[in-house]
Each structure stands twice: as C-alpha cells, then as structure tokens.
Amino acid sequence: MRIYILLLSAFLLLNGCNSQDESSEKTKDDNYKVTTVKNSTIKETDRLTGKQVANRLTQIAASIPLVNDATAVVIGKYAIVGIDIDDDIERSQVGTIKYSVGEALQNDPYGANAIIVADPDLNERIREVSRDIQNGKPVRGILNELSDITSRIIPEIPGDFNQPAPSKTIENQKKSLNKHNQEQLKREQKKHSTSE
Q1: Where is the signal peptide (predicted)?
Q2: Which is higher by pLDDT, 3 or 61?
C-alpha cells in the first residue's frame, strides 16, 4: 500500500510539473507577437552640399536691391552670409537692407538659420573662409576663423550664463541684515533691562 501511495504521489508530482511547464511555454509564446511596420520604404530626399547651399544663399542675398555682392559660408545647418553694400549708405539704411536679406533668406529652407553681416571687414573674412573651404584647407583653421567671426557678431549668448537669480541674492541680503539687526536689538534690550 505504501508503494501505491508513493507511486501515486510521484505520478501526481510529475504530472503537475508537466502541466506547469506547458502553461509557461504557452505564456512565453503569447508574449512574442509579430509587429508589422507600414511604409518602411526609404524615401530619397534632396539634400544639397554646403557649397550648393552657399551658392544658393549668395544668389538670394545678391538679388536684394542695394546689395552689390554677397558671400556665404555654410557649416551644417548654420550659415554666415556677408553682404557688400555701398560705403555711402546710411547706417539706418544698412539695417533695413540686412532685414530685407534676412526676410528673403528666412523664406528659404536652407537660410532660416543664417547670420547676416554687412561689415566690410567681416565680409572679407567670410570671403577668405569660403576660398579656404573651396581650396580644401584644414577644417580646424576654418572653424577657428568662423568662431572668431561669430564672436564679433554675437559676443555673448544669453543662454550660456549661469547667474544667480537676483531675488535669491536680495533674500540672502535681507536674511543677513535681519540677523545683524536682531543681534543689535538684543544688545540694546539687554542694556535697557540692566539699567532699570
């Protein structure tokens, strides 16, 4: 009788383990589902080279009235466009011309992130950088020159500053003044209490 109970227990144990293994296999299979992707074809986009974009931006800038010539340098999605205008044009009119060039470039997808320069010195430096790029000069020197030009145009970028908030500074000053005033008040109170 003991043998029958032992065999029955072993049979139930093995049978229980088998059914548990089958159920775990089913759940594992259920976890892996096939996903189909729609529209997975690669679409060709019309991307221009930096030289082509520079030529395009130069043509757009030169087409604006009172702009004699233009030069552009493109690095990635950013561009610096130098415009050549007459020396006898007033400063306020120069700003208007730069604004007109900016509007024309903003309508072009490649000119949206362009910086416009009307300074003759910077325009000549941009022209030199453009020649260096066409002649295959080392990129490091070109990028250093472009960073110098950009730093003259935009000397400080507001987003890069980590200044303490003025309200915190004022609050800290108030706290320190209050502590000082409190100590002085305590001293005066002690004087008055001992003198009575």
Answers
A1: 1-19
A2: 61
